[in-house]
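Per reviewer request, we include the raw input and output of the structure prediction for the construct analysed in the revised manuscript.
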Amino acid sequence: MHNNWLEKYFKGDRTIWLVVFILTLFSLLAVYSSTGTLAYKYQSGDTEFYLFRQARFLIIGLALMYLAHRIRYNVYSRLSQIGLFIAIPLLLLTLIIGTNLNSASRWLSLPGLNTSFQTSDLAKLALIMFVARMLSRKQENIKDFKTAFLPIMLPVLIVCGLILPANLSTSLLIFFTSVVLMFIGRINMKYVFIMCGLGVVLLSGYVAVKYNSEDRGRVVTWINRVKNFSSGEGNDNYQADQAKIAIATGGLVGKFPGNSTQRNFLPHPYSDFIFAIIIEEYGFLFGGVLMIFLYLLLFFRVIRFINHSPRAFATLLAVGCSFMLVFQAMINMAVAVNLFPVTGQPLPLVSMGGTSTLFTSIALGIILSVSREVEKEKKEGGGELAAA
């Protein structure tokens, strides 16, 4: 009876559901532990404030994920067009009138709601869905430059270009995920390499022009982060050093929940460096290795079930969403152990966040939707790989 209840309400891959609930639990524990200083600074010592705030976002996120997984995946093909149609003007609006923080306009304030919305979170999910849609529909002429490559690449360049001035790491994350999807979708890689080369030239030109102008924007921050990472000096390396101390003092089994010391020294222990806090409190084995294993397990389960997918769109959609999340997680963890310069990428579903948590949940719901339909089609006999 218990299994029947689970099968009735929670469709799709059970392992992915388990991964989601474990990550959610880690998020609540780690955010509660790492926001003490923030609570005393901004909430008069109310240490439960950020716990309840994160819990609200996670509950809403889980509800959105549940709704998303109940929708047939082919519906997202049409929703991708609507999402992109909304996201591009919002990105442009964010650049013009968005909330400016550290020379970056990433948030759009919502009138009357006293909250802000990070438009790049909507844009990256909409773009991945759109690229999957276009690749599946262009399979007959997939090697053609004019009819296949350009209609896919132009939206990628537009979205990445609009995100780039305020958030280089997110722009590169989206671009790389799109390139991976194009490779899987059999786009002529010669065109992709040419476009990547052109992208490097344009990015270099943008950096050079902005660096020599009065309004340098985020360019100085990007250059300083690379320089500090290479030289081992500067504020970014202070953060990296504190993260390494947290990891080193955590040892194999950690200091146990709530006993972190470095949360008082790390500037963003609840977001950018939450992985270091998790290792400090839960240890290398039960924190670090387990977190890496969970994200890799998520990607492995996606690869496993898409092998039985009879639809190109389903395959590309699931791979795109899962690769984006797992790649982002690996970047966050690489920053925490000082393998990458500081990027500001949150740990999906774990770091404290608002819109990032919600759109991560929707992406996971889409993956589960594909898994649900693949299971159903597998039972009914399946078929050949075809366009959605």
